[in-house]
Design brief:
Helix content: 25-40%
Number of domains: 1
CATH topology: TIM Barrel
Distance between the termini: 39 Å
Structural class: alpha/beta
Strand content: 5-15%
Radius of gyration: 16 Å
CATH class: Alpha Beta
Order of helices and strands: EHEHEHEHEHEHEHEHH
CATH superfamily: Aldolase class I
Length: 221
Amino acid sequence: MGVPTKEENQETSVLPEFRDVRLYCFSPGGFLQDRDPIEVVAAQIRGGADVIQLREKGLRKRDRIDLGIKLRDLTRRKGVLFIVNDDIDLALFLDADGVHLGQGDTPIQVARPLMKDKIIGISTHSLEQIDRAVESGADYIGVGPVFDTSTKDDREEIIGLDILLQIKDTCPIPYVAIGGIGKDNISSVVKAGCHRVAVISDIIQAPDIEEQCKALRQILL
């Protein structure tokens, strides 16, 4: 199976600029249970997701490719940004809109010549890491974990809301709050000046994924 060409998928609107992103969502990963992963993602898009990240650390490479092809097709048709977690080769193969890199992944100085003008996001967990990501040319940063989260086994120390308050008027690139964010605490993130959030479990484990996305996105406006 090949990657669909852009000409085959001219169904939708122009992709959003990252600065206009509000709700950053994910493939289901370990929260899939017995559901169809494409429908889980489609429900997030119907609910207002601006970004879908392919984040499937438990899948074999071949299975990530197969799922990625389907999600690339879906996101292209729906006009939603498609980001691949960690894997530059896979991002390029799928013609993703970008890649998201952690602190221990390929340095952006190596990734940029390969990704060219595609989006590169960097996970950050301190003011020093934020400064380095900005200086290195990241297109956006993830900032967290803001709250306690069970999504990552090797999660970093909780940074809280203070760092969001410190960067809200100074960070020159878009930043996305991540880590334990859900319906019960998203308002505090917005009060700290951040209107972009990445949400995994609170959405994917919700009884109605589409309605949960709509409710979260309304708070972010």
